[in-house]
Amino acid sequence: xxxxxxxxxxxxxxxxxxxxxxxxxxxxxxxxxxxxxxxxxxxxxxxxxxxxxxxxxxxxxxxxxxxxxxxxxxxxxxxxxxxxxxxxxxxxxxxxxxxxxxxxxxxxxxxxxxxxxxxxxxxxxxxxxxxxxxxxxxxxxxxxxxxxxxxxxxxxxxxxxxxxxxxxxxxxxxxxxxxxxxxxxxxxxxxxxxxxxxxxxxxxxxxxxxxxxxxxxxxxxxxxxxxxxxxxxxxxxxxxxxxxxxx
Length: 247
Known about the structure:
By secondary structure, this protein is an alpha+beta fold. Helix content is about 30%, strand content about 30%. Strands 2, 3, 4, 5, 6 and 9 form a 6-stranded antiparallel sheet that branches. A 5-stranded antiparallel sheet has the order 1-11-10-7-8. About 45% of the residues are buried. The model has no long low-confidence stretch (mean pLDDT about 95).
């Protein structure tokens, strides 16, 4: 892969939406360490908030502490961080009855020069906008998306299915977890979107594409995305984290 230097800029926004009493989404990022994470928690009472907060804090701590020049590859570092984070959430849930069964989705990316490693567990998503064309990089771990991949359901049917809330993988709900990893090479002008399903269930991909193509500072783009999702109903918590590749 090309080793030409690039820099990354980022911004994020989160909102509880118009229907939920609290916000169980969380995000953290460090441009300095090249780590960006979004999580969408689940569980009774405040358990979802605990799970997502634990996850973003642990992922940032573990990946930001990755020593420069370490012999451990970026892929190994990310996988180990996800496994450790899963154990932390699962252990906390087992030892606190009020948090029993809590879990969270996870989507994020880690950068190493032009190298970008996207990782996900659950149905929070990563998209890339390149040359005004939007592409979903991650794959949802959800019942309906698995049916789509098997050809048993269309994307339109999946969007309106009563089973669309059922996810097939999450952090913290089981002793072990298997993340998906996607390796990419960044190009100047690339814009990555990490988001919870509170955004993507309200805004179809063509609308996301048109909104992201607007030339605005990332903070304003984030605010515009949240506003659009709320205007479309705001049925769930909404979180978006944008990462742009610059020279």
